[in-house]
Amino acid sequence: MRTRMLVALMAVVVALAFSVAVYAAPAELPNCSFYPVQGFGQLWFTGERIASLVGCPTTGEYGVGVVEQRFQYGQAIWFSDSNTVFVLLGGGTIYPFTGVWSIHQVYTAYPWVRARLGYATEDARAVTASWQDFQRGAMYWTHKSGRLVFFRGWWERH
Asked: pLDDT tens-digit profile of 20-29?
């Protein structure tokens, strides 16, 4: 009787230990031909969530000239390499505008952008940003903005 109870107790302990190990184990990261490094790599490897959102990198990290400007309810970034303005709203939505030469051009041409961003809280400033493309998004970094992750029409600050 005692032997059967001991065996049953051991089976419960083993089952509990296995289930804890299964729940504690992180999901596997994507198998990529190369991986992000430095700050983007640290963010990508911190957990499966970011890696699963953006997927594998498709380019290495590179520098790009940008102009950043903050507003009451978000910020706008103009990219010199593509003449694109990203309007980033506080709720996490991204609105890209291609073929434009400045944040001011977008701000004045689209009344709904003015209404959603509010007034500027600082002057626009030109800086060099770090950028890396991924299968389903991108990562962006400047000293002032920190790390931003873009994916499926949304953005997050990390």
From this structure: 332 233 457 8
Q: How far apart are CA 81 and CA 104, in angstroms?
A: 17
Query: Which residue's structure tokens are 């509010």?
Result: 118
What residues pair up with 69 in beta bridges, in sequence order?
A: 76
Res. 15: pLDDT tops 60: no
The span from the first CA to the last CA of the chain, in angstroms, equals 58
**What gap in Å lies between CA 77 and CA 79, rounded to an integer?**
6
User: pTM (2 decimals)?
Assistant: 0.78
Average pLDDT, the chain: 84
Both tokens of residue 29?
């990261």
List, in sequence order, every residue forming a beta bridge with 109; answer none if it has no partner. none
User: Residue 103 in contact with residue 120, Cβ under 8 Å?
Assistant: no
Contacts of 71 (CB under 8 A, 6+ apart): 117, 118, 119, 120, 121
